[in-house]
Structure formats: structure tokens, C-alpha cells
Amino acid sequence: MSPAIVIRDLRKLYANKAAVDGLTLEVPRGSFFGFLGPNGAGKSTTIRMLTGLAPPSSGTIEILGYPMPGKELEIKRRIGLVPDESLLFDRLTGPEYLEFVGRMYSLDRKLAKERARELLDLFELSGDTKQIIGEYSKGMRKRVAMAASLIHSPELFLMDEPFEGVDAVGARLMKDILLDQVRKGATVFLTSHVLEVVERLCDHVAIIHEGRIIRQGTIDELRDSDDSLEQAFVRIVGYREHERLDWL
């Protein structure tokens, strides 16, 4: 079986500046893969290219055995997405939005409505079914985005900071659901700045810096002699002590 994601020499230029610069990466099927990097390293740009939202300047992408671009519809039917910015339909209620997403993935109306109700219950969003998404908190928006990514039982999840703004209970629920999906054979490709979460969840990790992969491997391989993934990360990306301000 082919890897879940295969990227070869991928580049994305904005005004002649490379946001992603020669990225080569393979994500095994059935893995919980952490994609890490400092702010501005190219993580979100990479996910936008993987979803077809941003065309690459050069290089190749293959997702679940299909080329991107070329087989976008086949790919999008098989992936679930939680973007960094929850781009939702703010004038819809939670049930309406989830039912709409289910219908977009070709679920029949009855099944879409049933799954929407079950997911709202699972994510503890069924209290006020008439509340529109525009009135949701950031954490609630992340929960409904996560619910929408699950409704069609995808093979691959692309998740850009999925736990940002989510309370501890909601984050625990989301982690448990994702781990269960991986146990059932799905693949999760995750970005997060919370390295303790990555260390606890992921079995493979790649670190991107200035648009390039600088290290990848298992958690233990990256950690090497460091006590934690956080220590390994700051060492790998080249953290330096800053001059201290006398007044601070």
C-alpha cells in the first residue's frame, strides 16, 4: 500500500520568496504524524497545498495514491480537514452546518442528519441547537470543525493546530477520538505548537524550518539524548539565549 502522503521537492513562492523550499516527505499510512516548526516555517502553507487550496510553484504531491493536482475530487472525498482558521458558515446552526458537510460528501439526507446529531452529542454541542456558529466561542468552533472532519469517515486527517483555543476537556476528547481513528487504520497529519501534545500522541515527527525539512524520524530518534521533545526541538531549530533587558 502506498504511503498516505508523498511529497517530492515541493516549493511555494510568494513574490519570489520561498514559503516552502524543496520539501520532500513521506507519511506512512496508519501513522500519527507530527509536522512541527517555528512560526512562519511553512507548515500552514504545506497543508494548504495538500488540500488544493494553494497550487505549488513546483514539485509533486501524492495523497492516498492519487496525484495532486489531477485527482482533487477523489482526494477530497477521502480526507478530513481542520484548518488553523475555522472557516465555517457563521449564519448556520451547528446541526445545519454538519448536515450540509455530510451532504457535500454525498451522504444521503437521513444519514447526514443522524451523524450530525450524534457528533453534536459527542462534542457536547447539542445544548442549543438554534445557536448559530457565528456566536460560538473559538473552542466551540474548533469542536464543530473537528466534527465536520469526521462525518464522512475519512482515511486521512489534515489538522492545523486543532487544539488551539480548546479547553482541557474538549482537547482530551479530540485526542481520544483521533487516537481511536489511527487504531482503526486512518492517518493523522498534525501541526501543533504544543510539543507535549505531539510527544504524547505522535509516532512520527518531521521538523520544518525556513521551508525545509531539517529533521524527521520517530519521537525517540528526534529526542536522542534530550529529556523531552521540546528540548530536542529548540536544539534542532537553533534556539539561542537572548540578551536580557535590565528593566524587565
Descriptive tags:
248 residues; alpha/beta; Rossmann fold; six-stranded mixed beta sheet; four-stranded antiparallel beta sheet; 9 helices; 36% helix; globular
Structure, described:
The chain has 248 residues and is an alpha/beta fold. The chain folds into two domains: 1-78 and 156-248, P-loop containing nucleotide triphosphate hydrolases (Rossmann fold, 3-Layer(aba) Sandwich); 86-153. Helices cover 36% and strands 25% of the residues. The chain has helices spanning 43-50, 72-77, 94-104, 109-122, 138-150, 168-183, 195-201, 219-223, 229-237; strands at 5-14, 17-27, 32-36, 58-63, 66-68, 79-82, 156-160, 187-191, 204-209, 212-218. The protein has a six-stranded mixed beta sheet with strand order 6-7-8-3-9-10, with helices on both faces. Helix 3 packs across helix 4 (109-122). The model has no long low-confidence stretch (mean pLDDT 91).
The outline comes out as: globular
**What Rg do the Cα atoms give?**
19 Å
Q: Give the low-confidence spans.
A: none
From the coordinates shown, what is the CATH architecture of the largest domain? 3-Layer(aba) Sandwich
What can be said about this structure in brief?
Helices cover 36% and strands 25% of the residues.
List the helices and strands and how they pair.
Layout: E1 5-14, E2 17-27, E3 32-36, H1 43-50, E4 58-63, E5 66-68, H2 72-77, E6 79-82, H3 94-104, H4 109-122, H5 138-150, E7 156-160, H6 168-183, E8 187-191, H7 195-201, E9 204-209, E10 212-218, H8 219-223, H9 229-237
Parallel strand pairs: 3-8, 3-9, 6-7, 7-8
Antiparallel strand pairs: 1-2, 1-4, 4-5, 9-10
